[in-house]
């Protein structure tokens, strides 16, 4: 099937053009613009990870439940095991240690998530359509009679998860803003004021996503810069200004 006339192989080699061809083979015409670059999409993921908010809201939880060892080297070890899953099921089983048992359990979970991620990436490549998981659920349904049910169920689960996560993260942001307002000021945070900040943030999110979607790419790019500089500033300030420093044994071997 000749899709692109005589414009040459340059356009045919373009990923977006290939996606258009895949959609045409599936009977769809591309309607939405693919104007987000790799860096824009990376900005979305980088913002969701959000090291700064993780440090300020969850660092204490990690220290009290897992200890400094988990916070310092836990994720490094887990990442290694995710890439080399066989190690978590082979060599480490011979080590009778509660520390390695914890890491093995975490590694197994991360390995499973990696498999899910790879599977979803494969589905996205095979079906480069809008609609996300609920469309994929319909496409992967064993028969047409169940397609609507799987699509409806997946769509609602995804929708509930999205607004629950957004609401939770925004509430954490409202608490951070309220706390920041108390620095060298007379502001006193109360439940009502925090809920007011929370509501204002949610309304701003709705307005941006409704009327200003085109600016999200710039917000994501700004987020990359902000998070990178913020993490560097955190690390520099702690090293330079901390009144005392724990020993390496406490940081890396205390669980």
From TrEMBL:
It comes from the Eukaryota. It is found in: Membrane. It is a multi-pass membrane protein. Residues 10-21 have a biased composition (Basic and acidic residues). GO terms for cellular component: membrane. GO terms for molecular function: transmembrane transporter activity. Keywords: Membrane, Transmembrane, Transmembrane helix, Transport. The keyword DNA repair does not apply. InterPro entries: AA/rel_permease1. The keyword rRNA processing does not apply. Its main location: membrane. The chain crosses the membrane at residues 38-61, 73-95, 156-183, 195-216, 222-240. Residues 1-21 are annotated as: Disordered. PANTHER family: AMINO-ACID PERMEASE BAT1, OS04G0435100 PROTEIN. This is Polyamine transporter tpo5. It comes from Friedmanniomyces endolithicus.
């Amino acid at each position: 099937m000749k899709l692109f006339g005589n414009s040459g192989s340059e356009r045919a080699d373009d990923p977006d053009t290939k996606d258009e061809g895949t959609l045409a083979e599936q009977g769809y015409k591309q309607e939405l613009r693919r104007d987000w670059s790799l860096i824009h999409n990376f900005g979305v993921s980088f913002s969701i990870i959000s090291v700064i908010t993780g440090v300020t809201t969850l660092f204490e939880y990690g220290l009290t439940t897992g200890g400094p060892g988990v916070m310092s080297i836990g994720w490094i070890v887990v990442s290694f095991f995710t890439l080399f899953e066989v190690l978590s099921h082979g060599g480490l089983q011979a080590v009778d240690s509660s520390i390695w048992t914890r890491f093995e359990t975490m590694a197994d979970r991360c390995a499973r998530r990696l498999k899910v991620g790879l599977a979803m990436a494969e589905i996205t490549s095979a079906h480069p359509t809008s609609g996300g998981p609920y469309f994929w659920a319909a496409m992967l349904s064993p028969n047409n009679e169940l397609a609507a049910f799987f699509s409806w169920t997946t769509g609602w689960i995804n929708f509930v998860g999205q607004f629950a996560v957004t609401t939770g993260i925004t509430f954490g942001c409202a608490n951070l803003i309220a706390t920041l307002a108390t620095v060298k000021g007379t502001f006193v945070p109360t439940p009502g004021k925090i809920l007011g900040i929370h509501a204002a943030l949610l309304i701003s999110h709705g307005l941006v996503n409704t009327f200003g979607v085109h600016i999200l790419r710039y917000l994501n790019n700004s987020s990359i810069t902000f998070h990178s500089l913020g993490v560097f500033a955190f690390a520099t300030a702690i090293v330079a200004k901390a009144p005392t420093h724990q020993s390496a044994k406490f940081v890396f071997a205390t669980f």
